[in-house]
Amino acid sequence: MRIPSQFDEQSLYRRKIPRNESVRTYRKLIRLALGLALVVVVMLEAAKPAVYRPFFGSSPSDNGGAAANLPSAVDRRTRNLDGKQPESSRIAYSPKDRQTANAIVAQLPRDQQVRWTVALSRSLRGEKTASATDTTATTVQELKFAADLPIESLSIWKQIVGELSRDLDTSATDSKVGLAQKYALLNALDDAASNRVIDGSVWRSEDFDFFYRTLDAARELPQAGFATVGALPLLQQPDVYLNQTVTIHGSLALAENIKAPQNPYGIGNYWQLWIKPAEGADRPIVACVPDVPRIVADQAGNAETSIADGPPLTVVGTFLKRLAYRSGAGADLAPVVVGRITYAPFAEGEKTTESTNETTPVPQGKFWLFVSSSCIAGIGLAVLLMWRTSVSARESRSLRVAYREAPDDFLKGLSTLPAKEPPESEQKHP
Fold first, then answer.
1. Distance between CA atoms of 62 and 49, rounded to whole angstroms?
2. Is residue 79 scored above 90 in pLDDT?
3. What angle in degrees, to the nearest 10, is found between the helix axes of 179-195 and 208-216?
4. Confidence label for 408 from pLDDT (cuts 50, 70 and 90)
């Protein structure tokens, strides 16, 4: 006996599921399980900042990436540990001061600009300036100031120019008068030097004014707070990143100790590192730094061949230019970052000499334990619900059968009834 349901034409009683329909059900369950596993994998990959750095970089709160949280073997002399105010912490100045500084720089010859840059940068860092004699120094009388410049500002500018124009000694520019004007003048001098850099070419003499200036100030750069970029954004968007401070992560591919020619900053040598970026395009980045840790210095013995698996490095510096070089594919470009190393691992046998703020990373085992326990709990709950549903269906079926009259007596009564004779009108006559 079939009791049709009000929802469909199926019987309310259990029916046998065809084999092909059962196979389709199991296939759906397998697809759902695979989809869940795919979602978990995507969630793990989406949580990694390195996936987005080639396209968007990292925010300033990234703190230099994961490498900055690890114990570093960077030499102490590359850090600002003497308590002095870094040059990057500059006093704000007005647009009028910057306009006056630009007008002064435009009247100076190139050699005088370099001389003033050396004097201002070191005096503002609290360093002593070596004596120098320049018979062609620009004097106050030779400079032209704006006619609408206030008398107080004019007096300050004349005092600054007077300090820089005369022969420099150990206290020539130690005056604290006009700090805002001095920073405005230093920025104007830096912009003039950076504008002389020729992008997309080999090293030129015009590049070294800003190159040595940036290399001299590299030790004052903070360890974190700058966007992390790869080689591709620096190559394809040079106008966005030129003269900007960036952070790069990668592994050392080649280390060269280069002896510097005579320069106003007194830099005797520096290191030119070819770095393979940690993510993004497989294009090298050239990093010029004043000092390197021991693990990098040990790799400089064989400067003609690249390192297959070099140590990981983190460099913070200023994007100077795109350097033309000859690669295996022909003429190519590599971005140049001038700064300092903020992270490098320890060499074999080297020990840390100072405490480091280590953060305990979250182990991956705990995550997978959480995922596994969640899956087991979900499967157990599904099995429990299926068992409870089958028990409820069995009980309801038993109740329906219990209150239903047995058909045996009814069928027996039918068998004892006499057979009806057809009416006379329906009887057939021969």
1. 9
2. no
3. 140
4. low
**Looking at the predicted structure, is the pLDDT value of residue 27 above 50?**
yes
How do beta strands 330-343 and 285-289 pair?
parallel
Is the full-model pTM beyond 0.70?
A: no
Backbone angles phi, psi at 213, to 5 degrees: -65, -45
* Identity at 367, one-letter amino acid code: F
Measuring CA to CA, which residue among 218, 200, 216 is closest to residue 208? 216
Place of tokens 């004019």: 154
Concatenating the DSSP letter of every residue in 5-50 gives -SSSSSBSS--PPPHHHHHHHHHHHHHHHHHHHHHHHHHHHHT-GG
How far lies 344's CA from each of 88, 312, 350, 428, in Å?
A: 23, 6, 12, 117
* Mean residue pLDDT across the chain: 77
Q: What 3-state DSSP class applies to 192? A: helix
Beta carbons of 118 and 186 less than 8 angstroms apart:
no
Q: Which residues contact 290 (CB under 8 A, 6 or more apart)?
A: 78, 215, 218, 219, 267, 270, 271, 340
Q: What is the pLDDT of residues 292-331, one digit of tens each?
A: 988 888 877 555 555 667 888 899 999 999 999 988 778 8
